[in-house]
Amino acid sequence: MPEGDVLRLTAERLTAALRGLPLVRAELRWPSAGAANLTGATALETGAYGKHLLTRLDDGRTLHTHLRMEGLWKVHRTGSRDASARNPAIRAVLATDAWTATGWHLGMLDLLRTHDEHRILSGLGPDVLGADFPTTGLPDAVGRLVREPDRPLCVALLDQRTVAGIGTIWMAESLFARRLFPWTPAGALTDDECHDLLRTARRLMERSVAVGRARGLAAVEMHVHGRSGRPCHRCGTPIGVGSANEKPYERPVFWCSTCQAPTPR
Question: Which residue among 8, 51, 91, 144 is the active-site one?
Answer without folding.
Answer: 51
